[in-house]
Amino acid sequence: MAVVLDALASYIQNMLTQMAKEEVDMLLGVSVEIDNLGAKLGDLKNFLADADRRNVTDRSVRAWVRELRDAMYDATDILDLCQLKALERGSSSSLATGCLNPLLFCMRNPVFAHDIGSRIKKLNKRLDAIKKNSATFSFINLGSYEDRGGKAETPSRLANRETSAQLDRSSVVGEQIEVDTRKLVEMLTEDPGTTTATHDQGTVLAIVGIGGIGKTTLAQKVFNDDTISRVFTKKIWLSVNKDFSVAEILKRAIIEAGGDHHAAGNAKATLQRTLQNALDGHKTILVMDDVWDDKAWGDVLKTPFVNAVGGGSRVLVTTRHDLVARAMKAREPYHHVDKLDPKDAWSLLKKQVIRNGDNEPLIDMLEDIGMKIIEKCDCLPLAIKVMGGLLCKKMARRGDWERVLNDAIWSVSGMPEELNYAIYLSYEDLHPSLKQCFLHYSLIPNESTVFFVDDIVSMWISEGFVEGNSDELEELAMEYYNELILRSLIEPDLLYVDQWVCNMHDVVRSFAQYVARDEALVARKGQIDVGELNSKRIIRLSLESEELEWSTLQPQKSLRTLLVAGHIGITVGNSLGAFPSLRTLHIDSTNFDVVAESLCQLKHLRYFSVTDPNMSKLPVNIGNMKFLQYISLDSCKNLAKLPRSIGKLQQLRYLSLMGTNIHFIPRGFSVSTSLRKLFGFPAHMDGNWCSLQVLEPLSRLMGLSIYGLEGVSSSSFAAKARLGEKVHLSYLELSCTSRLKDDTQLVKEDDEGFSEEEQQRIVEVFDELRPPPCLDALEIEGFFGRCFPRWMGPMAAVPLENLRILAMDDLPCCTELPNGLCRLPCLELLQICRATAIERVGLEFLQPHHHHTHQLTDVFPRLHDLTLTEMVEWEEWEWEENVRAMPLLEEFLLESCKLRCIPVGLSSHARSLKRLYVHDVQHLSTLENFAAVVELEAYDNPDLTRIAHFPRLWKLDISGCQKLKALEGLPALERLEMTDYNMVTLPAYLKDVNPKHLQIDCTLPLLSSIAAGKSSHEWDKFNHIRQVKVYANDGDIEKKWYVLYTRDPFKLETNVVNIREW
C-alpha cells in the first residue's frame, strides 16, 4: 500500500516524543540532530496533505513522494534501532516500570551514539534537499486533517476480488432488480429439455455492465432464488477475475459440486475429470462472476461441464464486456444492467445515510442536493453506497452536503479507469491514519485464506497506523474497522456473525491498489510475474501462490510487509534475514521449520502469523525479538512446545495457540502483562501448580480462550486466574474436552460416565472462573457439571449486564438451563446445542422468581436470534402465557428434540419473529398463531398434523412431515415447497391454500399421475394455483423428471412420456 505521508510523519514525531530527552547535552550531538529531525518533519508536514492528494493523480510529484517516503522509512528504522539497543541492554526493573530511556542508553554507549548521530545527520541532509526540491511543485498548506473539517478522534494493476453467493440485502433497492431477477430465473429454468445439455446459444446467459453497476448483486439474487435452488441439483458459484488460476478455478468448482479435489493434484486434465465425475448427470447451474475473457470457460470449464451435466443445465456469466459474452456464445440479447433510476438511487443513498429513523425528516429536506450528488455518481450503485458512507459521517445540514457536492475532486480531468470519483472523494475525507488502514486492507489475500477482524486490526497496530494511547489501541483499531464498514469501503461477509470478516468490492480494491502502486504489489494465483518482482523496490508484498520459490523474494530487501497465502517453496539455505526491515509477516502452509531460527534476525518484526501443519518449533531465542507484539500459530498442529524465552516479549499483545498440539505450560512459564488477546491456552496441572496461575497478572486481557479445564484438580487453582478482576475482558471461551460422539451419545470411559465427584469439581472450577461484568461474548463448550455456575444464575453477585452473545455447546450432564439469562439486558444471540440431559425447561427459564415477584419488564428484552438444537431428551417447555418475553426475537431455530408443543407464550409475545425453523421435533403436533412469521421451515417432524394461523407467512417449506393434514389461515402465502418421497397422493390440504408458486418433490408414480392433467384424480388439488412445478428423481439423477403447470395462460408440460405404465 502507499504510504500516507501525513500519517507517517505523525508516526515518526510520536516516536520522537516518546524518547525522553533527559541529559541529552551529553549525547555527543545526538540530541541536536534529533531536534533537527523533528523540526524538519514539522516543516514538511505543512504541505504533506497536498503532496498526498496530488500523488494520486499528478505523475510529476510521484518521484518526489517516493524520495521523501524512503527517507522517512529510514528514519523509523534508525529510531527503532536506537530503542532496540536500549531494550536489549536495559535492566529488567526499567523494563517493568517503563522508565527506560533510549537516548540515555546512547549516552552510555558513545560508539553507538556516534553511529546513530551520523546516520541522523545524513538523514537530515536528505530531508533538506527534499524540502528544497518541493518548491518545484508549489505545494500548498492544506493544514491538518482537523483543520480541514475532519474529526480528530476517528481516524497500476487492476485488483481481483473474491465474490460469494451470499446476498447483502442492503444493496437491493427498487422494483427493477426484482423484475430482472424474475426474467433471468425464467430464462434459466424454461424448457429444460430431455437430453444432456450441449453447448449452444441456449446454455449460457450473460449479465453485462460496467464496474460497480450491480452485476454481482443481480447474479447473487438469481443464484439464491428459491426456484433456482429447487430446479438445479448442483449450484456452483465461481469468482473468476482477470488473472485466474486454472487449477484453483477447477478446485473451487469441484468443491462447489460436492467433489473431492485432493487426490487430483494440480494437473488440469485430472482436475477436469474429477469435476466431470462430480457433475455426472446432475442438472447444474454454474455462475461465473467477474469474467474478463472467455478462457476460463472455453479452455477450462466447458469440456467437463458440457460432457457431464444433466439436461437443462445452465451457465450465467457476469462481465464488463459484450465481447466476452459473444466469445462464450451467450444467448442474445445479453442482459445489460441499467443504472439506477433516480427514485431508486435516492432510496439507496438514504439507506446508507440513515442509520436509525431519528434523522429521516432532516435527510428528506436535503433530497435536492442528494439528487445532484447521485447525478455526479452517474447513478451507479457502488458509488452511491460509498457516497452514503461519506455523508453519514457529516451533519444533516445543507452546508455539509453542499461541500461534498462542490468538492474539486469531481472536476479532476484525465482520471485513470481505476479512480472512481466517489471513492476518491470518500478516501480524501478519511483521517490520515484511517487512509493507511484502508489502503492496507486492499493487500489482504482474499481467495485461499480467511482473515478475521482480529488479524486485520493486529496488523494495523503493528504497522503503526493506529494513533493513540497504548492501552487503547485495539479499541481504536476497531473504531477504524467499523468506520470503513460505515463508509461502505469494506462490506461484512454475511457468512460470519458480528462483522468478523469483511470483503472489499473489486472497484474499491482497484482504487486502493492504484493509489498504492508505487510501493505495494498484490499478486494472486497464476499472475505472479517474477520479472516484475525483481524490477521494482517493493515495500509491501501480498502473494497468493502455489508455485513460487522463496529465493525469488529475497532480493526485496526493503520489504516491511509480507503476506503469503498458499504454498511457497522454502528449501535449506533460505532465510528470513533477507528482509531486515520487515514489520509484518504472514505465511500459510509452507516448510517453515527450515527458516524458523532465522526469524530472530527480523529485529523490527511486530506481527508474526504462520499456519503450517508441519511446523514443529519456534526459535529458542524468540524472546530477543523485543518489538514482537502479535504471534498467531493457528493450526500448527505439530507444534507441541513454546520456548521459555517467549516470556521475555514485554510488548506482546496477542498470542494464539488455537489448533496447535500445545497441551501444557511448563512451571515457571510467564507471558507479558501487556497481553490483550490469548487464545488456545491449555489448563493443566503439574503437581501442586496449575497453568491457570499464569493468567493472574494479565490484567489487560480483552479476549481469552481456555481449553482442557477438566484437568484442573481444584477450584482454588481456578480462583488464582482472577478472571473477575480483568475489567477489559470482552470475549471469553471456557472449554472442556468433549466426550460426546456425533450422535450426541456419551463416549463413556466406564459404565458410570462422569462421576459425581467430577461433576461437582467442574462446577466449582467454573464458579471460580467468574467473568467480569464487562463481558460481551461468552462461549462454553464441553461443560459436564449437573448445574451451571452460580454467576449464570439470577442471584449472581455481579451479573453479566453487558453480555450480547452466549453460545453453549456439548453439555452432557446439565439437567436445567441457566435461569438467570432472561434478565440479561443486552443479550442478543443465544445458542444452546447438545444439552443432552435436559428433559424439561421450566418456568424459571423465563421468570427465575416467578413465585415471589410480579413481572414489570420484558424478559430477554433484546434477544433477536435463538438457537436450541440437539437437546434430544427435551420434552416439555413451560411458559406462563402472561410472561412477556423476547419482544425483539427475529429468528428461532428449534431442532432435534422431543417437544410436544411450542408454548403459546412464545407465539403471543415474540411479535417480531420473522423466521421460524422447526426441524426433527419428534412429538410436535401443531404449529399455530405466529402473527409476524414470514418464513417457516418444517422438516422431519413425524407427528406434525396442523399448521395454522400465520397471517403474514410468505414462504412455507415442508419436508418429511407425513402426518400433516391441515394448512389453515395462511392468507399471504406466495410460495409453498413440499418434499416427500413417501406420499402416494397429493394432500387434500392443497385445496385450502392458494400460493402463487407450488413446488413438489415426490416419487415418479405420483409425478406421472399429476402429469395426466385434467384426467388425473390429483387435478382438483392443484389446478387453482398460478404456477406448479413437480420433480422426481431417477436413481442418483435428481429432478430428472418434471411436470410444469401454469394456470393462466394454461400450460401443462412434462418429460414423462409413457404415463399410463404408471
Written overview of the protein:
This protein folds into 7 domains: 5-137, no CATH class; 174-336, 3-Layer(aba) Sandwich (Rossmann fold), CATH 3.40.50; 342-514, no CATH class; 522-662, Ribonuclease Inhibitor (Leucine-rich repeat, LRR (right-handed beta-alpha superhelix)), CATH 3.80.10.10; 666-678 and 689-814, Alpha-Beta Horseshoe (Leucine-rich repeat, LRR (right-handed beta-alpha superhelix)), CATH 3.80.10; 844-850 and 857-973; 981-1062, no CATH class. Helix content is 30%, strand content 16%. It is of the alpha/beta class and 1062 residues long. The model is unreliable at 20-29, 91-99, 145-149, 151-159, 193-202 and 746-751 (pLDDT under 50). β18, α25 (715-719) and β19 form a beta-alpha-beta unit. The longest helix has 28 residues, at 30-57. It is globular and about 100 Å long. The strands form 6 sheets. The protein has a 23-stranded mixed beta sheet, sandwiched between helices. A 5-stranded parallel beta sheet has the order 2-3-4-1-5. InterPro entries: Apaf_helical, LRR_dom_sf, LRR_R13L4/SHOC2-like, NB-ARC, P-loop_NTPase, RX-like_CC, Rx_N, WH-like_DNA-bd_sf. Residues 450-512 form the Disease resistance protein winged helix domain. Residues 13-94 form the Disease resistance N-terminal domain. Residues 560-933 form the Disease resistance R13L4/SHOC-2-like LRR domain.
Write a brief structural summary.
The protein is α/β, with parallel strands linked by helices. The chain folds into seven domains: 5-137, no CATH class; 174-336, P-loop containing nucleotide triphosphate hydrolases (Rossmann fold, 3-Layer(aba) Sandwich), CATH 3.40.50.300; 342-514, no CATH class; 522-662, Leucine-rich repeat, LRR (right-handed beta-alpha superhelix), CATH 3.80.10.10; 666-678 and 689-814, Leucine-rich repeat, LRR (right-handed beta-alpha superhelix), CATH 3.80.10; 844-850 and 857-973; 981-1062, no CATH class. A hairpin with a 4-residue loop joins β36 (1037-1046) and β37.
